[in-house]
Design a protein that fits this description.
- The protein contains 17 helices and seven strands.
- The chain is of the alpha/beta class.
- The protein folds into three domains: 6-149, 3-Layer(aba) Sandwich (Rossmann fold); 154-215, Helicase, Ruva Protein, domain 3, CATH 1.10.8; 220-345, Zinc Finger, Delta Prime, domain 3, CATH 1.20.272.10.
- α4 (63-71) links the parallel β2 (53-57) and β3.
- α16 runs antiparallel to α17.
- The protein starts with 5 loop residues before the first helix and ends in a 6-residue tail after the last helix.
Amino acid sequence: MPVLTEKAAASNIRNGKINSLYLLYGHDTGSIESFAKRLVNKLIPKEAHDLNLHRFVGKDLDLMRIYDSVQAYPMFCDRTVIVINDIYLNEFKKSDLDFFKSILSDLSDTVTVIIYITGIDIYRNKTALNKEWAGFSKFCEKIGTVVEFKLKTASELSSMIISKLAKVGITINAKNASYLAEISLFSLPVINNEISKLVFYKQNGEITKDDIDLLCVPRYEVDSFKLASEIVSKNAGGAYAILKELCRKPEDYISALSSVNSAFVDLYRAKLAREAGATENDLINDFSYPANLRFRAKNAYSLCKKHSLSDIRRCLSALAQADFDLKSKRTSADIIFQKSIAKITGMNENA
């Protein structure tokens, strides 16, 4: 069976076409987690989870325990479900990988294994899987269902927001729905969190832009992250364009510098986490990111792979110097910040 889209896989499941093996991967990790959760609840009732649902994390994968779970007969329901999050294929010995494949190749009709990838990078570029995962995906295609979750477009997210709100009797126009998606950085988990807040606040009627600005992820946080992204990418033009929008008054530069520093701290943490083999979820848990700020960790984890640790350190060093100058010199904050951006992006190496 070819690799399916989320929509096609969901349609098959609704029509009762259930497979014994599912591999879920892609750049839209929020949708992957949501789909895996819905699939589990579709296959076994919540009251039967304790006896029939077995969860494993790939970092410490115990193949014998997986084998035992696969052999277990379902209790008080029709199916046993084994969920495995993030498998480190590159760390498998050939004998272990062969054993794992043999387990997956011999699943009974009363067992479903769900493998979903959310915290590790399995791509060699933006669209193609790396060698290990390309081979494993082909193997899973032959015996089960493989689903790739691509990032949704702004239009798709806007339609989704409108639909979700309509189900609870609340309206929002397409322009404001697109605005909500944009300030949430097109992250589905963040969007769902913001929708929950808006529904609790509004309860009925139409959601306006003022409602979004009042309750949702501050635009300041979003623009500060975009500014950090442009700076580390050495895109001076993009950086100054965002800075102009972000700072309307001289005193705004002080807050902007602080926010960009925070964004670079997120990038630095994320880069160190990636190099240590830690997942996105590890980063969130280790540094206790609250629910409304987890988008910062997720975006930093995604962005940092494009940049070297030395580049991020260089940016942090320059911004630390800017912060020091701001507190020790009489030079205005806007000049200090703009000179720092010029220095980092290479527009003025002597700045």
